[in-house]
Fold these 3 entries.
Entry 1:
Amino acid sequence: MASETLLARISDYANRPNPYPLYAELREAGPVVRQADGSCLIGTYHEVAALLHDPRMSAEPRSRTDSSSEETRRPPFLRLDDPEHHRLRTLTMRPFGPPHTPGRIDAMRGEIAHITAELIDALRDREQFDVVDDFAYPLPITVICRLMGVPREDEALFQGWTDVIVASADIGPEEDTTERDKAGLQARQEMGGYLVNLAEQRRGRPTGDMLSDLINEPDPALRLTVEELAETTILLFIAGHETTVNLITNGVLTLLRRPDELDRLRREPDLLPRAVEELLRYEPPVHMRERIPLADIDVAGTTIPKGTSVILALASGSRDPKRFHEPDRFDPTRPDNEHFGFGSGIHLCYGAPLARIEAETALGALLPHLGTARLVQDPPPYRQNAMLRGPRHLPIRL
């Protein structure tokens, strides 16, 4: 019976500070653990990897795979299957630069460093500050707004919208989510409407930002519809923001809990890219993803019926001892670190290249100031969301 309540216990806010013992319990009970609500929970590395790459596993919400549903709102391409997913993702990545290169994102390194320096400067005379509110939250919002071409006076609007949208996307046992979903839909409509209107102002008048590039696509066959433009730009904000906030904040928390590793990174800053990869494995920003099998599917000898909600516990897979040596140890020099921090397969996180650059820049700028820093509260208060897990506040004293 205990294994049938694992998803409920993982989703329980009381376990947000440390869900990892529950993930160990999941792996021990698995690979496939049926839940009381009818879903299946999977947290072993090799099974999660196989399912993320299996074309029979749909990323689309059940309302779209169920022909009896009256749901008509088109989800973002992160929740679509190929060929539609491939078409929209390819079109949307074009403004970033040549195929398979960061392009525009890589060119923003200087701008990201400048924004980071401005935030650090504002904290220099503070004896205490909140890593989330004063640094990790405003950094990616500012970066993504500059990337999209949002006027600086409107940047604050996006903090409220992203909070509500992320809260509406949580995964957990079935419960009444009517109000949460309604608020999320309204936030999506408001954000999408704003971005489409801003893009329309640039139609025929290119301004060099990503919104301008999308609305002025020269090939009519490749242009996004108004609905596709709205959903895709919203997705870019969420993928380019929420994961980065959690990655930076989890990184600071992890390093302050491990002063030896913090000192090592201060002495050897060239280790930062590898340290960020280890953070993505050890304390990832994304913990779970839902998939729906389009046919009965066998996983390690267990048949999962078509249409079942399958929750892939990515964070559990990234700590599977059958895949990683000493998985519960933070090791910034870890070799062969093929984690699930941004997922895997065709739905690999859209904002991953931007998040990596921001995390490296942010942690690199903070490291010189963290030698005398102490956590004010440990564990800190966490966000409600179990899927996109990270502290809501992280107060530190210098």
Entry 2:
Amino acid sequence: MSGTTTGRRRLDASVLPEYEQPVRPPRLHSRGSVVGVGALVAAAGAVGLAGSLLSLIAVDVPSAIYRPSAALLTVALTVMLVYRAGGHMRIWVSLVALLCTAAVVTEAAGAVAVAAVATGVVGGVLAVVLTCPARSFGATVREYLVSLLIAGGAGAGVAAWNAQVNTVVFVVAVGGVSLIVVLGLVWALGEGLHGLGRNHLAVLAMVAVVSLLLVVYTYAVRSYGSTSVINTIDSAIYQLRTTVGGVPRPVQTFVGFPALVVGLRLRSQRREGWWILVFAVLATSSVTAALVSPLAYPSYIGLSTLYSAAIGFVIGWLVSRFVMAPSSARAARAIEPARRVEPSRWSGLR
């Protein structure tokens, strides 16, 4: 017999994890050029955000600055999203820039509406894609806040467009297009459906069922519910609005924001976490589209989002503890849990 002692294999904590996706080579080879372009995009986004926020505040400034500010913010967000996703900068940024320019110059209702949809979609998707994997509680809170801030900033851009649209149709359009865009990105980042393990596929299916049930139930109650039920719901909403200033939204609270937490944490171990983040777009896109109506109260929308985000974070954290628990006693005895890395926040994912 050999003198070497054999036993159970354990994870080798000395081997550093590597990112599994091929990444595009840098488009700019000079570090000075990279810093300069990044600073220019950041400055444009900051100016656009400041001008967009003025549309929500009762200050004496010319209303003519609102739409150009929204256009500037949209182009800056698009540059960040395309770079992060590894897309073709010349194609997508040029198309969005042309759309925003046409909306600002012509002020045609259709062009303004489409530009507002583009702002909502880009902001909603970027709020998910620009996050990083989170292993600890503090990192999860940080990434959660990053996502909320990006979505809120894009929401200010949507408000600055002041598009004359049907609110329900607009929200559905932003949410639907955002889901299509993020599905295309996640298909590559999550290695397709075949990359899902059985447990995580079950979680994904459960989230999809809960989302469908919430949407169907809400529609059914509003469309076919009895007068007493509708009056009870309206009364509860009124009481919450008058006492605490906002009302949590079911899809955000029970699906979107919990999915954001679970996806952020799961990404630190497995790339399948990207699939959970598909449902997080339901929350971020609804935040970006919330202020499209000129009759919407920013304080009410802000407080409602805050309450939804707070409750959703607690639910998501509890679910993530269950999802990320070791699947067996052998896995629990491993030296180091499975760990995964991604490029930094300001680098491309592909």
Entry 3:
Amino acid sequence: MVKLLACLLLLAGPALAQDKPGMHMSIIADPGHDTSVVGEMIPLTIRAVYDLKVANEKLEILGTGSFDWIQTAPDDWHEEMIDGLSRIVMERHVAVWPKQSGMVTFGPAIHHLTVIDRQSQRQDMDVTGQPLALSVGAFPIDRGWHLSAEAVELTDELSADAGHLPDGATVIRKVTLRALGALPEQLPPRPVVSENWLITFAAPVQRDLFLTAEGPVAQVIWTWEFRPHTGEPGVLEGVTIPYFNATTRRMDAVEIPSLPIAVASFFNAQTLTGVIGARQVWLLIGLSVIGLIVGLAVAALRLAPDATAAGWARVRRRWSPLPRFALWQARRRGDLLAERRAAQDAGLPPARLAALDRRIYGPAGP
């Protein structure tokens, strides 16, 4: 039905031009390049020139099935001097993105008007702009996401230092992708993040379109909340986003950088701080003193003339606590014979041993 209507309009176009030579409309392309590719923005202007005053109007654009398109600015109505005569001019600026390669057409456009004729009477009429034929090339790569833009910008924001998180804490990552000369639905889908060592929550995707003086800017925001599931650190790999650079006419790319995520306590447990506490200081001093004493004792025994097995035995008896403990127990019990044996094992002086002998074998006192 739409194709039939378009054909009828094409046939009716010349008749309208003959009946109303001062009322005409055209669709003008301003691609800025000799060739365009699928998904690349092409600026168009629908321009109408009228020699009658317009009381009411409605512009209808047909034949847009092969394109995505938007109006990029309000309609501009103004007067111009054309061939020495004042004319009313209407211009509508639109941007179109072809969905397929080959020869495609945009339009026709029909302007439904209510004009004031030269007899000051209202009159309804339609003015038709003929379809515009465009030659569109294929996207440079077959696989992957087909994004074409004049410029692409990516920002990566973190709510905290992801590499040194407190225990149980989370970090919020916000990635914003902006593309000049693209539509929001043409931006790629959110990258999938799935790791066994990471708990991930993905917020809803936010897509927006902004009309600027340079052209339409599409924006998408991806937000994740990450919390390490284990104590060991991990790394999220970077994500490359390719696109066709409409300015340089070649493939280009931006990248979401890789992100290390770890808990700070893991590194604290693995890394020496270099600070020694007071107890550790005294322990080191005590060990040093003991080592010095043992070293001096060994040196003295080696240098002594009687450094024999008997000398070593005397040293063991003198410094061992066991004979002293046996001597104390014998004295407590009042066992003189056991005290004499323990005194000899402890290495007491001969005078003390003789005193014990007199007490054991001497005559009993009064």
